[in-house]
Amino acid sequence: MTARASLTLAGLVVAALLAAFPARAERLIVSVSNHRVTVTPNYSGEELVLFGSVEKDASTPADRNYDLVVTVAGPRADMVTRRKERKFGIWINTDSRQFLKVPTYLALFSNRPFEAIASPEVQRRQQLGLNNVLLTQRVGPDYADVVPNDAFRSAFVRLRREHGLYREATSAVTFLTPTLFRTGIPLPAEVPIGTYDVEIKLFADGQLVTRTETAFEIVKVGFEQFVATTARQNGFVYGLATAFMALMTGWMASIVFRKD
Amino acid sequence: MQLYLPIADIPVNVFLILAMGAAVGFVSGMFGIGGGFLMTPLLIFVGIAPAVAVASVASHIAASSFSGAISYWRRRAIDPALAVVLLSGGSIGTALGVWMFTLLRSLGQLDLLIALSYVILLTTVGGLMFWEGLRALLRARRGGTVTTRRPGSHGWIHGLPLKMRFKRSKIYLSVIPVIVVGLVIGFIGAVMGIGGGFILVPLMIYVLRVPTSTVIGTSMVLTLVTMVFATMLHAVTNHLVDAVLALILMVGGVTGAQFGARAGQKIRGEHLRLLLGLLVLAVGVRFAVELVIRPEDLFTIRETGGTG
């Protein structure tokens, strides 16, 4: 097959795909500046840039105003939020609530306040804002999210925010032209390792127009990665090596500092 | 200089950790203790997960006590026979302690129990040491004779059977209390994640009447072996030993310990006990304060696994 023929074939496939979704008036094309963030010994946080554009076709109304909401969700994990209470004069953990498979990192960015973008109903349905994101809790025998002002839920979100792991910024997305946009994704130093899903939702006139997804990955590389995998997979050898290292360090020190 | 810790999963300042290791090493060399009861809270304060801190500190204490033990060995300040008997009790105690630790964890509220045992143990031991050091000091000031060894006053402990002669310490003692002391230290150490030297030294001085010339070196041998054992156990069961963190702590620790050991030789015994008592008491009080005052934040989050 010649290059020309394959190009024609590719063109046909694209045309067929486009024909299959004729109702889509807008299309989102996005990319992140780096799909693979490497955590090195001197990693102290980083900022990724997500940029993209809104592609229109003939059926798109000419002067539509767009709103954009970007949701970045890190690897999921189970977490427990505990509350301390005073008992017998000392503060101890009494009540606790378990959060199931919640994102370890969660960021919501938009170009204007969520209230201005959509109605409360749409905000809730599309999970716009930290108050509307689904955080599943184990409530007795059930699994459910609770109201945003629930003591445990708000404490959980507040604590994650204090560490920069949950964030919400309603002016982070900037439209460079009416259809070209960008936003920064700040990743703090203690960012969890894993796959991050990025969901981009386009709104117009208070309704979801289209959405797209992308992802990036945060990985440990080099020596760190080697140490972490060895510790997990060969605990015995790792322990032996660490113990040996301890003895060697102690022995070396006694030689170095020997004076008598 | 920032460095990323592979197991603790956070970046730290190398010089801060190095300085912490050196400071704790100095104290441990001076008093002949492992220093775990100081190092673990310090690491947690810096932001390292308590479980990782406890596990990594074990190997740091191993390095510190090994370098200390070598220098005490050269000065013939270790009683090998006494160390072996202590270790036989210590290893059983450590195994029992690990078993207890797992049991408590399954019952929940382990953190509270650890905090409470820190408070009770540190304030009691610290208070007693401080009081004893103060009395000895006052006695010395009044011009009385300081008697750290009272050969005539043999208590019931010295009436126990299975007596053994510990040549280097110049004591003739039943092995039963020695094994029991080793057992208790091993147990406490495993449950609380500390070396236990600060309890062991006074126990050996006041209960076993081991002369001060061999007490620190011998206690270091017990700390060394139990901490190597603990490092292995943490690495195999929980995969929580951060070798990079441990190495930085060790380098700081062994350096500090050398200077500490020299400083310790210059200070008089009763002053040393008074200072150590104060230090232990201070850490205990700090834990107590934390339990009693209203915490800044009533809520805490902890990851319970299930990543995916």
What's a quick, concise take on this entry?
The complex is a heterodimer of chains A (260) and B (308). Chain A has 260 residues and is an alpha+beta fold.
Describe the structure.
The complex is a heterodimer of chains A (260) and B (308). Chain A has 260 residues and is of the alpha+beta class. Chain A is built from 6 helices and 14 strands. Chain A folds into 2 domains: 24-220, Immunoglobulin-like (Sandwich), CATH 2.60.40.3880; 221-260, no CATH class. The longest helix of chain A has 22 residues, at 235-256. Chain A is globular and about 80 Å long. Chain A starts with a helix and ends with a helix. Chain B is mainly alpha-helical and 308 residues long. Chain B has 10 helices and 5 strands. In chain B, the strands form 2 sheets. Chain B has a two-stranded antiparallel ribbon. In chain B, α1 (14-31) packs across α3 (50-74). Chain B is globular and about 55 Å long. At the A-B interface, β5, β6, α4, α5 and α6 of A face β1, α3, α8, α9 and β5 of B. β5 (76-87) of chain A pairs antiparallel with β5 (299-303) of chain B, so a sheet runs across the interface.
Question: What labels would you give this structure?
Answer:
heterodimer, A: 260 residues, alpha+beta, Immunoglobulin-like, 2 domains, 6-stranded mixed sheet, 4-stranded antiparallel sheet, 14 strands, globular, B: 308 residues, mainly alpha, two-stranded antiparallel ribbon, 10 helices, 70% helix
Q: State the distance separating the first and last CA atoms of chain A.
A: 83 Å
Helical proportion of chain A, percent range: 25-40%
Written as H for each helix and E for each strand, in order along the chain, the element string of chain B is: EEHHHHHEEHHHHHE
Note the quaternary state here. heterodimer
CATH class of the largest domain in chain A: Mainly Beta
Rounded to the nearest angstrom, the distance between the terminal CA atoms of chain B is 33 Å
Tally of structural domains of chain B:
1
- Major beta sheet summary of chain B: 2 strands, antiparallel
The spatial strand order of the largest sheet of chain B comes to: 1-2
